[in-house]
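User: Sequence recovery, please. Input:
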């Protein structure tokens, strides 16, 4: 009877395993479908749906331990939470994505994790950290295939870096990365990259408009609008807004009003509420400047109405998203508890059957051997865990020392201490040696300036800590570029960073 029972149990287990594999394949297909829905919802600015789809995909991926599904779900959640302004939770999900085995072999995932993290650091005013993340993105982009996707990732990174340097008030660097972005985009298939081209040309047009180069500005605005018409791309309002701003600068209120109304007309299609607020504000200001106070008040009221609606929607979205997290985490906890109880029950039953079989067949020796192997494995596991703990402790100590040395170096620079250069060469020996090998004719003052640029000090900070005028620092940088045989406008931060690779 016992043998028959075991055979039947084996057949049932085999059938169950085959059924489980079929079910696992169906779950994986459904997860991939949910992730596509989450991505589409995100592109359509339907954040709540994007979160719901991603969370559902995550829950199903955990059931079958689908690493790709978990990684992409974590990434989607991190991106959508960033859009909602929940930076801490977003960083948490990005870290979870990074730990998934699937991510380590996928440069696109590594790129996206670093890119979103860099964007978050930018919004948190952690500019040096954001630049480091975007430098990682440049390295990951080199490993992405095909080349068109690699170039697209380079374009996104250059765009992000130009935004960071705009916050740092570094006009040379902003233009440098915008030109790099333009060079990449204009070498790509236009039908693939036209959306980014529209944004870039509009940004160039706005820069030249602010500088009073209205002819150049109009050329870039026209290029952007020509692309939107060629590919039936509906997003034109940003270009029309900047065109209206340019006409205001040219003191052409009628033309400015024409473009602002074109922007409003386009917004009827795209429904971008944030830009409604901007256009209403610009029109209201235009009416105020021309003395039409009643019309100015009407448009200011429209702007206030949109702003209140946006604030309410954002608050509701955040509250809803947080409620989703709470509900799903409760469900996951309940599922985990049920799974653990099931595993314990099955394990107990299997153990009882094995004990009976072993006792009846007198296979004590085999049982003893298995127990010895289990103890050995347990001992090995214990030793491995100890080694990991020791390595982690050493890593923490090393990280602490690096942070202490970095902070010490920053303080020396801020105090204009004479030992700054010597201490910099001690902490960064390899970059210092490489720089001197390539440029042995640099003076001490030029080496100090190079070191401060390497540490990502802005021109304003360098001027403050070295007690000179901001214009003098710009002049010193220009002379340093010439001495390093670098072209005018070349990015010194990127150049010095290359010596640490």
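Assistant: Recovered sequence (501 residues):
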């Amino acid at each position: 009877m016992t043998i028959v029972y075991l055979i039947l149990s084996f057949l049932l287990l085999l059938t169950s395993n085959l059924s489980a594999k079929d079910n696992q394949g169906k779950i994986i297909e459904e997860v991939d479908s949910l992730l596509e829905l989450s991505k589409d919802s995100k592109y359509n600015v339907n954040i709540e749906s994007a979160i719901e789809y991603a969370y559902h995909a995550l829950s199903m991926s955990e059931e079958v331990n689908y690493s790709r599904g978990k990684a992409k779900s974590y990434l989607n959640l991190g991106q959508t939470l960033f859009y909602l302004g929940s930076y801490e939770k977003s960083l948490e999900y990005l870290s979870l994505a990074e730990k998934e085995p699937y991510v380590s072999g996928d440069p696109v995932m590594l790129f996206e994790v670093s890119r979103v993290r860099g964007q978050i650091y930018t919004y948190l005013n952690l500019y040096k950290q954001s630049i480091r993340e975007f430098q990682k993105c440049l390295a990951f982009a080199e490993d992405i295939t095909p080349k068109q996707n690699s170039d697209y990732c380079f374009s996104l990174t250059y765009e992000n870096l130009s935004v960071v340097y705009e916050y740092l008030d570094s006009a040379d660097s902003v233009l440098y990365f915008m030109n790099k972005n333009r060079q990449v985009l204009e070498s790509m298939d236009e039908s693939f990259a036209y959306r980014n081209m529209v944004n870039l040309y509009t940004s160039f047009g706005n820069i030249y408009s602010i500088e009073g180069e209205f002819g150049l500005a109009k050329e870039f605005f026209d290029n952007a609008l020509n692309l939107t018409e060629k590919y039936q791309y509906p997003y034109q309002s940003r270009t029309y807004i900047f065109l209206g701003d340019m006409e205001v600068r040219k003191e052409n209120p009628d033309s400015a009003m024409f473009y602002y109304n074109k922007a409003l007309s386009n917004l009827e299609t795209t429904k971008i509420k944030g830009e409604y607020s901007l256009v209403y504000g610009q029109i209201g200001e235009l009416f105020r400047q021309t003395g039409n106070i009643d019309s100015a008040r009407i448009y200011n009221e429209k702007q206030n109405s949109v702003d209140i609606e946006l604030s309410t929607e954002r608050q509701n979205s955040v509250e809803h998203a947080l409620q989703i997290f709470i509900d799903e985490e409760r469900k996951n906890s309940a599922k985990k508890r049920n799974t653990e109880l099931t595993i314990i029950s099955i394990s107990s039953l299997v153990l009882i059957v094995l004990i009976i079989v072993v006792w009846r067949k007198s296979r004590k020796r085999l049982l003893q051997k298995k127990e010895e192997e289990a103890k050995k494995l347990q001992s090995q596991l214990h030793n491995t865990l100890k080694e990991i703990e020791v390595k982690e402790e050493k890593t923490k100590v090393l990280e602490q020392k690096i942070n202490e040395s970095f902070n010490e170096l920053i303080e020396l620079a801020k105090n204009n201490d004479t030992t700054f250069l010597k201490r910099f060469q001690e902490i960064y020996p390899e970059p210092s040696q490489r720089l001197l090998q390539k440029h042995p004719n640099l003076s001490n003052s030029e080496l100090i300036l190079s070191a401060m640029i390497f540490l990502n000090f802005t021109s304003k900070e360098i001027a403050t800590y070295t007690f000179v005028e901001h214009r003098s620092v710009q002049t010193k940088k220009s002379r340093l570029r010439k001495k390093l045989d670098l072209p005018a406008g070349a990015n010194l931060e990127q150049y010095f960073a290359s010596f640490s690779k």
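Residues 293-361 form the longest helix (69 residues).
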